[in-house]
Write a structure and sequence with these properties.
The protein is 11% helix and 51% strand. It is mainly β. The protein has 2 domains: 163 residues, Nuclear Transport Factor 2, Chain: A; 295 residues.
């Protein structure tokens, strides 16, 4: 309320012996009253007149200024009506008297004083009245309708009138909502620490389902329309990686054994080994429990819509995680050379003597100087399905613009919006550098998944949110 000390003094002064005469039927302002008390008294008297319209319809009508409109809270089509038209509707629907309850929200009253004697008030109040169907039938159900009375008071002219009764959007209350939120990753994960996968294509989806509780921690009406939120959500996250291929090469490996037995053993043998990995595909799915918290500010756009801007923080803990994927691999030997004691270097040729020998199929194999056996093969498919990926926690920060939608009873029913979230990535450390050995040792289930080797700290998601009040 914006009533000033000056206004209160004015009210007390004008209530003295020099006060102008009050209009008929208007409560007289006593020295202990204030200007606001008189405005509230005028509204209360008018509401009581409305209840007993059969005997006091004339007093009800006289309290309004010429041309005043009354929001028809009992009409099938709710809209402002002339006061006489509104009273006619009341008489038609409630011939034995209009029984309703009302409550004046004093902490939301707005006051504007132009000088010491002229004042305007906006007094919010609500009625609890019978529900009237679209067919004009009065039911036993009750509903709340929020209204605001506009009152003008001019003490010099002795003028105290209600200039209108308007619909007032009911203040939002604490509420529990069920929310579904699908989102998709924008951009790609950086794979700069995995040679050959720097240009790999990545994707991501994040689906959430759960409850969100919006509340105002303070007492009284939330006039600033600032809300806090806490929730409990289940999150399904999917991360994918695709790569057409990558190649590794080890040049000039010294061999301790011979490849084909026809090659003489009185020279130092060297060979180049290549690994070609193609059709790399990995999908990682996880289910997590999330606890989001947030703060939001709302603005009224219309009778049915409120715009909200929300900042959200959250933490999630994975409770299930699964890796699926595969790749195709070739390991071939090329540039097999012999170096003799006189320094002569000879390429190992095939039987025809005109092409270099290439080892690309089992049982062809060589043994390097360390004693490691290197087998050659082509088009070998390996699976990533059995990797023992660790379950970890993740964090998120988001910005969520949305619209709160009110139902026919003018209370919030739905929320529809956009989501923009930064979600921390699932990262795992590996002791050895990631190279051809990661793909060769396909029996090692302790290897991290490929997407867990990303050097991106966050993944950016954009999506939608849909919520309904519970």
């Amino acid at each position: 309320m914006r009533t000033t000390t000056r206004s209160l003094i004015c009210g007390l002064a004008l209530a003295g012996p020099f006060a102008p005469a009050a209009a008929a039927g208007t409560p007289v302002l006593m020295p202990s009253d204030t200007v606001q008390d008189r405005a509230i008294g005028l509204l209360k008297a008018n509401l009581e007149d409305l209840k007993d319209w059969f005997n006091r319809s004339s007093q009800f009508s006289k309290a309004f200024a010429d041309g005043a409109k009354y929001y028809c809270d009992i009409c099938p089509k709710r809209e402002p009506r002339d006061v006489a038209d509104y009273l006619y509707q009341v008489r038609s629907l409630f011939p034995d008297g209009f029984q309703f309850e009302y409550y004046i929200e004093k902490d939301r009253i707005e006051h504007q004083g132009y000088d010491l004697s002229e004042h305007d008030f906006r007094i919010p109040f609500y009625k609890t009245l019978p529900v009237v169907t679209k067919e004009g039938v009065v039911t036993n159900k009750a509903e709340r309708v929020d209204l605001v009375a506009l009152i003008h008071m001019d003490y010099r002219k002795g003028y105290f009138r209600i200039t209108g009764v308007e619909w007032d959007k009911p203040p939002a209350s604490n509420m529990l909502m069920l929310e579904l939120s699908p989102a998709f990753a924008l951009g790609r994960l950086k794979m700069d620490d995995v040679p050959g996968l720097e240009e790999a294509k990545t994707s991501g989806q994040l689906y959430r389902l759960g409850v969100q509780y919006y509340f105002h921690p303070g007492k009284g009406t939330n006039r600033g329309n600032v809300w806090l939120k806490v929730g409990l959500m289940a999150g399904l996250r999917r991360t994918g990686l695709r790569s057409e291929g990558l190649t590794y090469e080890q040049s000039g490996l010294v061999l301790s054994g011979l490849a084909p037995q026809t090659v003489p053993d009185d020279a130092e043998h060297r060979i180049t080994v290549q690994q070609r990995v193609t059709e790399v595909e990995e999908n990682v799915s996880s289910v997590a429990v999330e606890v989001p918290i947030g703060i939001s500010k709302r603005w009224s756009l219309s009778r049915r819509l409120d715009f909200s801007m929300e900042l959200q923080l959250g933490v999630g803990q994975e409770v299930w995680r699964k890796v699926n994927g595969s790749y195709v691999m070739d390991q071939v030997g090329t540039r097999h050379t012999m170096t003799f004691q006189n320094g002569q270097v000879v390429d190992v040729m095939n039987v025809s003597g005109d092409e270099l020998l290439v080892y690309n199929a089992a049982p062809a194999a060589v043994v390097d100087a360390s004693g490691e056996r290197i087998e050659f093969f082509s088009q070998r498919t390996s699976l990533l399905d059995d990797l023992e990926s660790k379950k970890k926690a993740y964090y998120l920060v988001g910005l969520n613009p949305s619209l709160f939608i009110r139902g026919l009873d003018e209370n919030i029913k739905y929320n529809v919006g956009l989501r923009f979230d930064l979600v921390s990535t699932h990262k795992e450390e590996t002791a050895a550098p990631v190279d051809h050995r990661y793909f060769l040792d396909d029996a090692d289930t302790t290897r991290p998944s490929l997407t867990a080797l990303t050097n991106s700290p966050f993944q950016f998601f954009a999506g939608l949110s849909f919520a309904v009040i519970l």
